[in-house]
Amino acid sequence: MISKPPRRHPSSPARNAAPSHQAMGALRQLFDSLSREQRRNQELLVSLAFAQRSFTNLQRFLELIPIVAARLVGVEGALLVPFQADGSIWRDHLQAIPAASCQDVLRRVAAYEPGLSVGFGTDEDQVSAMDHLVRRLCPGSALFATSVVSRGRPRGRLYVFDPSSGLTCTDFQRRHVQMVADLAGVAIENDQLLQEARRHERVDRQLSIGAEIQAQLLPDRCPVIEGVDLAARCRPAFQVGGDYYDFIPTRPELIGRRRERGRWALVMGDVMGKGVPAGLLMTMLRGMLRAEVLSGLPPDRILHDLNQLAQEDLAQSHRFVTLFYSDFDPRSRRLRYANAAHNPPLLWRAQHRSIGRLDAAGLLIGLQPEADYGLGEVRLEPGDVLLYYTDGVTEAPGMTGDRFDEARLIRTLDMACRSGQGSQGILETLFERLDRFVGKDQQLEDDASMVVLKVPEAVTLPSVMASSSSLTS
Fold it and tell me: How many CA atoms lie within 13 A of 322 on its CB side?
């Protein structure tokens, strides 16, 4: 028997080797192309992330956003509409490519009236209306839009489009565009946080300057005045205020014992408002007041003239000043005073063990050009205590929400005076009580200033003859 050779099957590997090899080559080229595209996209995203870390100029970084977004999708056009912190369109940072053909789009979006209002970015209907506007401005272009979000807050809107052909974004490309939008959102938020930090730094510098101004205004120690014991302190708050107290000799040319026995001006004031402007205004008024003291006029005339001198400057600043001005003569122990709407000082009378107010009619400094001020006069007796203070004391809030108020201050002063303490002891008692009321380690809302003047119990009036002879010696 003769065996026949086997017949070859038409689908044998030898017959299909060439087509199979071609298919594998084409598949390999496709994989290589996808790998190159993936590497390119990764490099674009990595470069953008590096730029975000490296750039300090937000404008330069946002210029990259449309470029990278368009390249990732493989289109010609992209538009970035960032929002400001208040949600309105940030017109200064609008970005688009191609720049030449997108000028009208940028102009129309920048002039989009609803987008200029606060909270626009959080209104979904308004943002959707802007999407329709962008679509109308890009006729014939397929368009894909996504939100620029950071920490749950809308920071803008990113659009990609292609005017020359249809746009079909795969899920993979959409995720890439969203990554670009997220990087833009973080950059916008970081810039806004940086600007806020800089504003706080500027405020801190202003407060520091204001604190220095205020510290220079206040005497570093109380002067020696014959027949009285003085103590003073200003407790500053976080915010710099306009508290001011001063001790001014009416005859600064005198020295030694002659100055101690001369007439002294004792002043307590407060500029309405806080911060550096208040400190600067008080600096100006301090200079004016010290010049007025040299005139030797009585307190009511000094406040009248000071009001006229400071009228223009205070009117321009829209601020006013409360000021209690008094002068004290150690030889007679007579205190003359006038008040420009400041908290009336409290006078504790040792003989009657009671407290009254020293007050006189008068308007705020700077309120109106022609203002008259009343003149008061009182003679201080041995053991008497006079307390000057600012409203930062009586307006200090406690832990329960109540204010320290004048009644509480009067009770504390009465207790301290009855204990027989000197002026420094009385001052310490008043501040300790204030601190307990406000709460341990709690900061005051406003500066609290107090000056205590006490006439020691053992003081006797010097004779007129002795005073005259000492002045002529």
Answer: 20
